[in-house]
Amino acid sequence: MVYPRCRDFLLITLCATTVQSVAAQTLRILNWEDYLADEVIAAWEQQSGWQVEQVFYDNEAERDLILANKAVRNIDLVVIGDEIIQRMGKAGYLAPLTEQYVEGLAPIWQGSCGDYGSPYLWGSLGIAYRTDKVDQAPANWKDLLYPIGAWQNHIGMIGQYDELLGPAMLAMSLDPMSNDEGHLKRAFELLKRQSESVLTYEYAPSYLSVATPEEQEELWVTQVYSGDEYTLNDLYGSQVWQYVLPEDGVLLWLDCLAVVASSSNQQAAQEFIQFLGKSAINALDSESVGVATPSLTAKSLQSEEFASDQVTYPPADVLAKARRYKPLDSENIRLRTQIKDALIRYHDSK
Amino acid sequence: MTLNKRLLLIVIPLLCIGVILGTYGVYRVQSKALQDIELAKLENRLRNVHRIFEQEVSVATTALSLLVEGQTLVEYVANSGDDINDYIVSQRMDRIIDGVVGQDGPRIIVSLSNGVGQNLYYYERSDNPFSRLPDFVLEYAQSQFRKQSPVASKLMFLNGGRHAFIHSRLLNRYTLAEPLVVDINESVALTVVAYTHRFDQALIELERDYGVHPQLIYSTTTDISQLSASMGVVEILPNTYLELELTEEYLQQVLSPVLSWLMAVSVGFGAVVCVALLLIIRRFIILPIARLDQQLQFVMTDRQSNIVRPIGKDEISRLGVKFYDLYDQLNANLRESHSMAVTDALTKLPNRTRFQDYARKALMRAATNGGYVSLIYIDLDNFKFVNDRLGHEAGDELLQEAAQAFLGLLKHDGKRRTGSMASRLSGDEFAIVLSHSELEERERISRNLIALFDGGFKTERYITPVSASVGVATFPDDGSELRELIANADMAMYHAKRSGKNRYDLYSYSIAREARRVKLIEDALKFVDCDQEFSLVFMPFMDKGHKICGVEVLLRWYSPELGQIQPDEFVPIAEQTGTYGKIDNWVFRKAFSEYPNLQEIVGADATIAINISAAELGQKEFSHNLIELKAEYGVPDGVVELEITETFGYFAVEQVLDVLRLLRDAGFRIAIDDFGIGYTPLLQMIDYPVDKVKLDKELVSRVTGERYRQLLAPTVELCHLQNIRVTAEGVESISQVAVLSEAGCDFFQGYSIATPMPIGALKRWFKSYVPNPDLSRQ
């Protein structure tokens, strides 16, 4: 299990850094891996004279616990999903962000980050697969949730409450954001059945980066966020991974940049956010990490190849049918969390 | 073999009993031990279950402690109402609980409730994400408020045999410390429920294994020591006890394999011991006995002369040794007595038994290998005379020396022969078994035997007038069986005796015939009807003047079976068989009764001469009888003349002389018959009470011959000098009469004078008799 180790590592790092006196001024950002271009960081550093340090997470729940942990003091910025940012901000973990710094924001994303964040990048939840291992390419969530026998123990899922339940619901043609207990129960049953074919509930890039070459060969089909396929192919060293948008329901997410309430560098943090919101920077950053930008202006600055990528920028009709991650009520979250925990316990007990 | 059977009958039951008792004893001990072990095992199990329970319970208490100490709850309580915290706290709770219980931990419920029974926060970690907060949780929290107890815990009994441990603490909502005063408004109850599913599983397993439902008992008064020995108890919580009883069924079930095993072992062991014991006893006790028995059997059936003398110090060997020695001794004794049984004590010769045995064997050898076997029977003549006259000592000495003589003769017999054995059969009878290859050897031996007695037999102290009568029968000529040969040798010997003694006779058919005849006569004599068969004839004799002076009474016998039998044939037989008494008696009766007639015929002074056996003279009754008869018939004295044959030699015996004197005194006259050819020494005649001497026919013919004529007169004179008359018997001719009468003979008797005639004929003859010396009989 990577995530307890990750968590411990993070905690230790964070606690450790509290007692350390900082030589140069450092801005610490809690972020996904491969989610902030080195060139962008370099540019900012040069411009501002601040150092940027990234502290990585690969699990949203973990990120949330870190933010809620009063013992943690040295995080300045956080990349956080739009479905939970308002809640976390309201709970006092994020500093209010008064301005929106993104130019040419597409209307769809307006106000998504609420009072506490600025839109950063957006994408979809989909399926990546090994073209060299899989005979029939997965086309939808059903393929993943009702897997064929050949994929037994070769499937990867993201062990988070929305990433598990959303697709499960979609595979049953249900509303992925439903809080109907009956639906959730069915989803739970489906996931339990599917878990027999699941190799891991760890986030695929993390799993593969620590797996042995033999273990790597075992993961054929996995749930990922769009853009992860580049990371996976980089890890593998060849273009074996392919990303596909499921036909039975595309889930769209938006990441926001937010300032951590307990940060002592809030001014600099805001400035960095502003910097990142610049179209040119955004465009560069977006293309560099392979994830879509919410800014139309920034998009127009991107390469033809990138801007026309159907996976990164799904066509309008796909977008029309796609669903957004909605903020859920606490009861729903709690229930889904319990389902996730029970499922993972169920899987691990086999 | 009865010892074997006995052994089996004793050993097996005893062993069975012993084994059964032993097994039972072991079983009792074992079952007690097993029971104790089971109880110990049970208690161990219960302690294990207790441990499991404690672990699960400690989850609740630990989780609660962590929650209280950690900031999670603080934040929650402080920010209660903020719904995002619900999710955050749940995630945190999950991590804490994971740390305490691990991934596969039990179902845990965490509930935060307020003083009025409202649930503020509910977290459940289980495999059913949809479960609701059970009612008992809030109820328990409420009861805690009521009881005002800051810390409480309880074991909840749920349906389906499941249990849950509920642990609850009241906290001040601001300080999150234990409240000093429980204020409903200011306090919250933090309740953790741990479902003890591993404990429940353990209870199910206990029930499955022990067949009895374990009891959870709440009791403040239970004293563990009071519980029965078959009850396992463990205190899982203060005043809460887990009890399990070891049922009879369970113990039976545990014990039965032990029992079966024990029985199998005991049976097996018993069988092994039994077999071993039997084998050992057989080998070391029965076998030696059987061997001894077999040895004895061999000895009894003559396969061995004695048992093999055992070596060894054990009882059976000692028994065997004793038997060996005893048997050896017995054998020696037996040989000795056997030897004594076959040996004649006096002469040391083999006795009759041995003789027969030896003879049998000799015959068998001869039958197989050929050759002759002769039985030579020897009877000592006149032995009785020696015994009577010289005494038994002399008789014994005679027998001993005769025996030695026989042995010596056989030993020194120069000619080669196969084998011989002399034996004493009885009395004065001896026998020699002679195995020889040439027939004439038997005669040679017989001749030598006779020769031993030439001139009498000389012993150390005596010279005895003893001779031998020898009879010989030879295998295969004279018989094929011993019995036959013995009978024939005996017959031959008797023939020799009858024929004059001091001679040997070889068995022949004529001897047999003679013996048969003798037997016939003997038998006829036994049953003779005297009046019918006997008749008297009378032979007159004359004196010098040719006057008939008297008659000699002679007996004639006509047997219906045998016809006419001559007196010289049957008289000796009668004398030997002792029937002569009867004959004599009849003769005298008849003669006495005829006396008047004779007197009438011959004259008033007729003499009647009657022959008597010298043997009878030995018996006093005879003489008395005779005297009585004479008196009975009124025969005058001097009439009857008793003629006694000389040859017996009885005259030497004093007893006989006494009888003769008695008879003479009673009026009888005594005459010695057949004088001249016997043993009587002339000089002894002086003593004899004799009136007349009758010269034997042979003597008469001899002395009337030229050669011995001159002896006649002196002989007659000798007699005359002793007042003894002389009669000449067997006078054949006138010239003889002349000679004899010239020599002085007083009387003459012979066939030329007159033949014996019955009374009727006598009468007739007498009428025509003319005492003419010149007349010779027609």
Automatic annotation (TrEMBL), chain A:
Any one GO MF annotation of this record: polyamine binding
GO biological process, one term: polyamine transport
CDD domains: PBP2_PotD_PotF_like
Subcellular location: Periplasm
Annotated Gene Ontology cellular component terms: periplasmic space
Keyword Cell membrane: no
Keyword Transport: yes
Keyword set, alphabetical order: Periplasm, Signal, Transport
InterPro entries per record: SBP, Sperm_putr-bd
Main location: periplasm
UniProt-recorded name of the protein: Spermidine/putrescine ABC transporter substrate-binding protein
Lineage: Bacteria, Pseudomonadati, Pseudomonadota, Gammaproteobacteria, Oceanospirillales
UniProtKB/TrEMBL annotation, chain B:
The keyword Membrane appears for this protein: yes
Membrane-spanning ranges: 7-27, 258-281
Keywords: Membrane, Transmembrane, Transmembrane helix
Span of domain EAL: 514-770
InterPro entries: Biofilm_reg_signaling, EAL_dom, EAL_sf, GGDEF_dom, Nucleotide_cyclase, Rev_trsase/Diguanyl_cyclase
Highest taxon in the source lineage: Bacteria
Ranges of residues in domain GGDEF: 371-509
CDD domains found in the cross-reference section: EAL, GGDEF
Protein name: EAL domain-containing protein
Native organism taxonomy: Bacteria, Pseudomonadati, Pseudomonadota, Gammaproteobacteria, Oceanospirillales
